[in-house]
Structure formats: C-alpha cells, structure tokens
Amino acid sequence: MSAIVLLTNPIDPNETARLREHAQVRVASSQDQQVLAKEIREADVLIVRSPVAAAVLAHADRLRGIVRHGAGVDIVPVAEATARAIPVSNAPGANAVAVAEYVVGQMLLLSRRLHAVDSLLRSDGWGASRVLSDGAVELRGKTVGIIGVGAIGQALARICHYGFGMSVIGYRRDPSKMPDYIRAVSSDEVFRTADFVVLACPLTAETKGMANQRTLGLMRQGASIINVARGAVINQADLADVLAQQKISAALDVFESQPLPDDSPLRTMPNVILSSHIAGITLESMRRISQLSVNQTLELLAGKLPTPLVNPEVTQRALERMQMLKTSF
C-alpha cells in the first residue's frame, strides 16, 4: 500500500509530480477543520500551507510527520504534535529574498508616494498628481530599523546597505549573530530613530503587540512602519489611531484577523498600503519551499527525521512512533 501525503493547499506542480513518484498526493477538499480531521485519517505526512487546529491531530493515527511549507509555524499545532510524538519541520529562510524585495518595494512606494500618485493621476489628472512629489525623499542616507534580524532581516539589510547606501539598525535577542554593518540597538531605539521600521520577527509572547500606542508614538514625523511578520505583532487598533494623526505611514502584508475585515478602518486610510499576505510568494520562492518540503516529506517516508526539526525534543519518541507505524500499517 503506497503512502499518502495530504496537502492543505497545492504546492509547486513540478515538485508535486516528483512527490507522486513516491506516494499518493491528495489536496484537502476544504480548509474547514472538521473536513481536514476526516481527511487526515489516512495521511502519512501532512504538508501545511494554511492553519491546522490542534484537535485535527487527534484523528491522525497514521501521521509520521508534519511539513510546514514555509517558515512560520504559528499555523501548526506544534505543542500538540510534540505531545503525540509527531515531528514538525519547516523551511526557514526559503522565502527571505522574496520578502526582503517586497519590503524594498514598499519603501520605494512610501518614500515617493507612488501609490497615491497613481491613484490621483487616474482620478484628478496630471497636475494634481505631480503635487505629491513635493514630499518625495530618497532612500540613500536614510535609516532602516529591523526588528527580527533573521534570514529575512539579514537579506533586507544587505540590499539596503549595499544597494541603497542606507544605515541599518536592528534588534534581535542575540545581537552577536548580526553582521557588522547592522548596528545593534534596543527595540525602542528602532522605533525612535528609524525612517523605516520593519517588523520581520516571529510571533512570540515578547513580540505580540510590540508595535502599540507607546512604541508607535516614539516614531519620527514622516517615518513608516512595514509589517511582514505576523499581524498580531502590531496592535492594530493602536496603529489605526496613530495613522489617523497623519504622523506616520505604513505598509501591511499581515493582519490580526485575516482576511482583513471589510469594516477595518485601515481600508479607508490614505497613508497605508495593504496587501494580502503575499510578501513571500514568488515563483522562485514557491519552487524553493516546495522542493525543500518534498525533500523533507521523502525523508519521513523513508523512516528518517526531516531537517530542520522545529521540535527536536521529540526525536527519540518520533523514531519509535515511525517504527511502530511501519509495522502497524
């Protein structure tokens, strides 16, 4: 009996074809958790691109492992998987270039107000749109402050430092791991001094609500905040209040509630650019992530633990579980 790999969403077609050489590949028929709980019953490996509830794993008796198609594991029930001796892997850094380039694009849009220029040219004409260039600024010589200097933060820092001649400051728990062209500062100092504050950190107890009324109030007149982390890193109500004062601008790819509610005040604010959690999605990044995810899946199907492991503490129990599953099914 061939192994079954369940995908919450489709992945790269070429990598799907490669996976089909080794297993049956099924795509979940719905994102509804009850449906997923039913369809996971026969799965040997689950590849995750959309949220999975902890309760789903109660039905995953055959599951050898969970592969996160991406870096962030906040949509994976890691604690529940660990309790059930199920290894979890992910793809850290595979979309770092895509996200970094997205941030640069938003910095250019915000610094030149190009999104507003385009809109005003279409609605009010040539002359009206040219007025917006009065406040345009160059990136060269400006300061970008990065909170979360991991793979994405470092990719962004390289582009900003070497490509645009920007000063780069950053905050991370272990500043010794930052390149020498990034000046390590406190998180408050990032908010206080950066022309562009970029949130590229994981969502943790420390970072949840980090951008709030107090820290946003530290930002300089005319500064911008760009969020490519997780929506809950920003207190969205506080941000809306600060944006209404026209002191700062923002570019947001992630939100506390996704999809962004139709009645969100952010939808009508002229000083914020909105996108639908697409910063890390390019043809190239999806191919890289899919390739890594399939490699990890094949490791699991071969009775090996995938690398990297999100929950390495599960190692011995996971190997025992896989051996038990091998003899049971």
What does it look like?
By secondary structure, the chain is an alpha/beta fold. It folds into two domains: 136 residues, NAD(P)-binding Rossmann-like Domain (Rossmann fold); 179 residues, 3-Layer(aba) Sandwich (Rossmann fold), CATH 3.40.50. It is 37% helix and 14% strand. The protein contains twelve helices and twelve strands. The strands form two sheets. A seven-stranded parallel beta sheet has the order 8-7-6-9-10-11-12, sandwiched between helices. Helix 9 links the parallel strand 9 and strand 10. The longest helix is centred in the C-terminal third of the chain and has 19 residues. The radius of gyration is 22 Å and the shape is elongated. The protein starts with a strand and ends with a helix. InterPro entries: D-isomer_2-hydroxyacid_DH, D-isomer_2_OHA_DH_cat_dom, D-isomer_DH_NAD-bd, NAD(P)-bd_dom_sf. Belongs to the D-isomer specific 2-hydroxyacid dehydrogenase family. GO terms for molecular function: glyoxylate reductase (NADPH) activity; hydroxypyruvate reductase [NAD(P)H] activity; NAD binding. This is D-3-phosphoglycerate dehydrogenase. Pfam families: 2-Hacid_dh, 2-Hacid_dh_C.
